[in-house]
Write a structure and sequence with these properties.
With 205 residues, this protein is of the alpha+beta class. The protein is 50% helix and 18% strand. It has 7 helices and 7 strands, in the order αααααααβββββββ. Strands 6-5-4-1-7 form a 5-stranded antiparallel β-sheet. Strands 2-3 form a two-stranded antiparallel ribbon. A hairpin with a 2-residue loop joins strand 4 and strand 5. It is extended, with a radius of gyration of 23 Å.
Length: 205
């Protein structure tokens, strides 16, 4: 449908995959952004480009988002070396966990074959380390939850209440890390500090 320029029909299929089945690819996200921009739906275009940015954190993507939102500066698009390294670990989580599990099985096999002469500390210490690493890999190598601010203006507060202190007032396009949800508020990280925004003013990526 996309190749035959039936863009609205293609977008309906893409959005069903993205929102309902949570299945997508970077190429699909770019197509969704292209169609949404052509339809004048800039908030959704920004949403899809921000999601695409997680796979391709390039300056071209951020420049496009800045042009769409008409903002010279956007928060949340900086990628540190630590974040890039962590992303590599996340992308290869299954392979890492499988390799560690294989190492643990080899240790078990060697111990069973040589249990009479094997040194228990020499076996149990590496096995314990491998079990801990498998647990950490399987449970903690998860991508952080991020959201894009879609409300304009959005008030960033220091407490999950309208009576809290205002930290900042921002427009659409900023990308934030969501730590948790409290009633109608997202707890986010803003400028390396804990803050809160209304859930209606942000869309999770």
């Amino acid at each position: 449908m996309f190749n035959s320029q039936n863009y609205k029909e293609a977008l309906a299929v893409y959005e069903n995959l993205y929102f309902e089945q949570q299945t997508y690819s970077p190429a699909m996200l770019l197509k969704m952004a292209f169609i949404s921009e052509g339809m004048g739906d800039f908030p959704k275009t920004t949403l899809y480009l921000s999601k695409y940015y997680e796979y391709n954190p390039s300056q071209r993507v951020t420049s496009k988002i800045r042009n769409l939102t008409e903002q010279p500066q956007l928060y949340g698009y900086e990628v540190s070396d630590q974040e890039q390294f962590f992303k590599i670990l996340i992308d290869n989580r299954i392979e890492i966990t499988s390799f560690l599990t294989l190492c643990l099985l080899i240790c078990l096999i060697l111990y069973v074959k040589n249990r009479e002469s094997a040194s228990k500390p020499a076996f149990f210490i590496p096995s314990f380390i491998l079990i801990v690493m498998i647990f950490l890999s399987n449970n903690f190598l998860q991508p952080p939850t991020r959201a894009i601010i879609t409300g304009s203006p959005t008030l960033i507060m220091d407490q999950p209440t309208a009576g809290g202190n205002l930290i900042s007032k921002v427009d659409v396009g900023h990308r934030v890390r969501v730590n948790s949800t409290k009633d109608t508020w997202y707890e986010i990280t803003w400028n390396d500090r804990k803050a809160y925004i209304k859930t209606q003013n942000a869309t999770k990526l």
